[in-house]
Queue: 2 jobs
Job 1
Amino acid sequence: MFYRDERLALFIDGSNLYAAARNLNFDIDYKLLREEFMRRGKLLRAFYYTALLENEEYSPIRPLVDWLNYNGYTLVTKPAKEYTDSQGRRRVKGNMDIELSVDAMELAPRIDHAVLFSGDGDFRPLVEALQRAGVRVSVVSTIRSQPPMIADELRRQADNFIELDDLRETIGRPARDHAAND
């Protein structure tokens, strides 16, 4: 699937990867994730995309974002929008699809292989465009959760599908109790 001399870039849809790993009941160790893909090829960039609530005193994702920023990841963030849904529940919206897609297309001439950590079917046109530019695309997500976290059309479009659960031993650590966060 990977060639030692190929130039790699990782594109991590933070909230999507978090949800997939959580559904599989493990947490991602981002130090191990980066090391794993450095072994698989020449890792040029590891992007991590997430929206942040700016007005909160403490955000549970802030320590992770700070750590990633100092440990070889390129952080791409934007303010999340907070709203109340029709049932009166507080919701947060922060879609990073455009930012991820623009970065991937800009980097395409300099990479051989893009690794997309997302199961979002909205990325299918991006995968197709990267392939037309001569870039191989692997998608990391899971079909082992209920329901599966990867859109069928994204999985079919990708050159390779990597089951996140198969990476558990390499990049995972046991999940902390998330009940307090739900």
Job 2
Amino acid sequence: MKNIFRLLAVLGLFICFSSCEKESVDEPTLEVTPANLDGIWKLSEWNGQALDDDTYCYVVFHRKDKTFEMYQKFDSMYARYITGTFLIEIDPYLGYIISGVYDFGNGEWNNEYVVTDLLESGSMVWTVKDGDEVTKYIRCDAVPEEIVEEAKVNQE
């Protein structure tokens, strides 16, 4: 009888300790608003892959007038400085959609993007609305000065 009580006690302790797993706490997502996008963002991943060393994209969002500045090097061997306006809409099925228009009559962005996982810690994910391309942006303090200078030289 003593062995049965000891076995039950050990079994009870085992159950207690195994049920005390550390719970993961997910970081809550932020609402996608101009205020929460305000600042400098760097493209860090494209379809789950890090960018090549010579490829980059920095987007600076200005909440007050809903404008953006972009420093990018994708489709050219030179840095490009692009400006325009952006718009955030809410789709009842997809969530937050961001789109934009380039300045100087250069047209609209090629795609609209579903913005998800906007975290206070400084990251967000964009997925092409009618596609499967996924990009991840991280918040940063500044666009590197050499990129700003290169873009200015190429602007002239």
